[in-house]
Amino acid sequence: MVYEKHRETWTLGKTEIVIDELPFGLFMEIEGAEQDIRNIERELAIKRLRTEPATYPQLTLKHGKNREGVIEARFSKRK
User: How far are the Cα atoms of 1, 4, 32, 33 from residue 58, in angstroms, in the given order?
Assistant: First the structure.
């Protein structure tokens, strides 16, 4: 299995905010103490985002392409 991702990371207060772009979507993680996470969600006006419980390998199996027995999720080549 192969999947590509681009990651950007920020620190805000005591939390770390990560945005991952994969060929099948954008995903955000906020890591920190529970109250700090709630404060960041409020500060960033994050509402009604769907929680994704699946791991990137599980999502790759779902959305990737089988190429000669290898499941791949790669970005298309840009010209």
Answer: 10, 14, 25, 27
In the structure encoding, which two tokens stand for residue 46, read together? 């994050």
Q: What is the DSSP string of 38-74?
A: HHHHHHTT--SPPP--S-HHHHHHHH-EEETTEEEE-
User: pLDDT digit string (tens) for 6-57?
Assistant: 999 999 989 999 999 999 999 999 999 999 999 999 988 888 888 899 999 9
Sheet holding 15-22, edge to edge: 6-12, 15-22, 25-31
Question: With contact defined as beta carbons under 8 Å apart, do 3 and 73 qualify?
Answer: yes
pTM of this structure: 0.84
